[in-house]
Write the structure tokens for this entry.
Amino acid sequence: MAFKWTEGDHVTSNIVDATEQNASFNNLKGEMNGGLDRENLPNSSVSNDELHQSAFVKYAVAANMRAQATSVLDLHWGDTAAGPNAFQQEYIAIDFNTYTGGWRTNPAYSIESLFQEGMLHLEFNCWYWLSNHLANGTIQGWCQFQIVVNGTPVVSGDKQYQNVGQSHLVVDIPISTGQHKVELRWRIKPWHGRDMTDPIFYYDGGQLLALNRYR
Amino acid sequence: MDARLKLEAPRLGGIDELLPQKDESATILENFTVDPATGGWDNRIGYEKFFPGALAYQPFNLEKRIHSLYVWSTHNGARTYHLFESENIVSQRVDLKFTVGNTGTGGGLVTVDAFRKIPTLNEPVTDYEPFGRYLIIVNGHDKPMKFDGERALPLGWETTPAPPTPWRPDPEDSLPGGDAQNYAFVDDSAGIDSSPLGFSQNLGLGYQTDGSAEVENSYKWRVSWVSETGSESPLSSSSEIVLWDTPDTAGGTDPAFVGKRQGVYLEDIPVGPPGTVARRLYRTKNLGKGASVDANASYYFVSEIKNNVDTVYSDYTPDQFLTTLSPSDTNSVAFPAPGARFSASFKGSLFLDGGQSDPTRIYYSNPLNPDSFSASDYFDVGMRDGGDITGMFSYYNSLILFRESSIELVRGDNVNGFNVVPFIQGIGCSAVHSVTAVPGVGIVFLGNDGVYRLFGGLDGGSQVQIEKMTPNLVKTEKRINKSVMARASATYSPKWREWHCYVPVDGEDKPSFGLVYHVDKNAWSTRVGFPVGVIAADAGGELIFGHNTGKPPGIVTDYETGLFVISRKRALGYTLSGGVDPSTQASPPPVAKYRSKWHDMGKAATKKFVKYVYLHVMTKGDNTIPLTYYKDFDYAGISSTGEKMQRADHPDQQVFGTALWDTAVWEEPMFTTIRYPIAQGAASFFAFEFDTQNDIVLVGYSLEFGANKTQTIKGKR
């Protein structure tokens, strides 16, 4: 409820009416004990000084996220079946011996927390490296990131075809009160004829933010 | 004392103007409410500012007459919108605003819509109707709108979308420039990177061939808008037809494009009006050889563009993926009621009248979609006598249609269809804003000749009935200015348990006189001096009203403006001292007036000698209340001295002004009897009256009188 108007007016020469007095007093008292809202609180009457930190929000962060199950792999350039490797570079990455396709959840970094009813704002950032261009320019693959809440996808990035890039996912979802788990998933194009030991994909520097705004 | 010479009225009723009057009724009962503790008449009422602590009438500064008012409570009351329309002194138009926040010295006003039409004196004001999370706002002149608490968006689809412009496929790469392009879907192995990875050969439009012969393809498109309510607009007309041939090997076309399907680039996808959140694209299947632009064809859903920004789209959805037929042309038509004056939500549809130019027609929306109307979903009640539609109201399992001189009912539902049936002829209602649902009473409204109630239903063996509630208010009814009854405003307050109806009377052009029905006593009283132009009750039953005059133009020193509240404040508004605040002074309380019925003590022909009037009251203090008594319907009466509302034979109760803090005790009102001596000659009829600004709770009264064998003398010649 919002406003409260006069419930009892005390007029000179009227009896000191306890019932009337109580009615007018309790009218205001009752409003203060449970009826305060934006309609009757004066503007600016509640400032930061009156509020406990994080009174309306809660946040959780999973930082330094990076690809799991990686190994140090060599990538060769100028390689032919007969000749020697003209150029060789070590990469920390996954290869098709460890990835066969489909979404892969990163088990090492997730947010599992008690959120309150309201909105959950999720943001994810990372950089990635993808071996996807052959020397002749043919595009070989792509990568894609996704955030899941309690196993359900809530935002998927587009497929990314650049060799090196950043992924940035943002989503706001309604959330109920309770324990919720937020995880990151990724996938790349399945095996498409590359050497099984070629480094294919890696990401790092990831940060997943969950910002819970209470209703 | 001889008991036969005492008349008791222990419980008092309301006004009765029909002679002879009922026992315990009153001739005049002004500015009273029911005291819940005793069931008596209590005059402790008044009105106060909407923001009692504000300077002057902040935030109301320039408001002239308030024409319409609606209290829309959302979020369990935490967000309550007091929407009102007021004449603005500056613009000479009406602005639709609502109050927001509380600055401590008054809240702010947010304008929802400005420069709206000032309703004429005799037409109904803006009608508000909740529909889901929207408030539908119509007034018969301005564009109907739906308000979601933040924005006001147009209601319905005013126009149909324009068709998109498809680019012509150019599989032979022979049309450089212009609205044509080669958008072939080729194999990855072709060595031409015209298709992104992941696209497969089965996408695209047109026939796919082995290249042995040319095949003609042709397509057309249509578009619709989708509003945030989920309502779909009428479909656009069809686009130009797009024709091309799937090339064969004989024509010298690059082999990569021979026999291949094409994507089609569409531009000019129409952007919808405010509130549009998506567009839907429909397309024919391949019309093949010989199709013309006006070829009849079925359209199928292709895709939903989930924004209202993009104006281009690449269509490569093959025919085999098209399975859902488009809505028919009659499923959604351009908004049929742009001049709607009244609205009602009923069985999930929004009902609107046709407006002044179409005054006997009722349109209803598709279920749960207040923006989309089917071509055939309307009634016309003009086939029967009854006049124009003057309002509508949802009640139980029916929608009540009020007409000038009849009432009809809309029955049914969206699944089985709606139908309209006549209910009663001869009773109409032109005061749509008086129609109110009153618990335990029914639908109460001000009819053309009094207040009526509709009750009962049409299901489960019940039947709808109508009953006049004011058969005894014969004089008051005649005071109502029927020319401007449309401006009557009523509401029910569960807090006060009263139905308030403010009407223009005595030839006035605006409401100024209140009829109050007290549910607990099944009785009527009147309100005088309350400048109610329009009234509404909030979720808590507080009676909020818009001033019927407001601030007049020019420099004025004393005025009231904006919204006010009927409360226990013992003041009839305010008097501004000096014109510029600094304080608004409360005016004296309203004058409460009670005149008893004309008592004949059982036999009018016998002369009576009234000796005492005993008022049964609750003690109120030292403020005195005099009594005036009348005989035989005389205009002038005799006044008695004022009596304190204290017990006569006990020490006075402590009162404000003299009671000492920490010494006096809190008192409670006590039931007592105040005796007034009457010095009057013989009378056939006797009545008493008091009009006071002091507090009184009148529970009942008794008369003590004597009678001899004196009879009324012979009539005059």
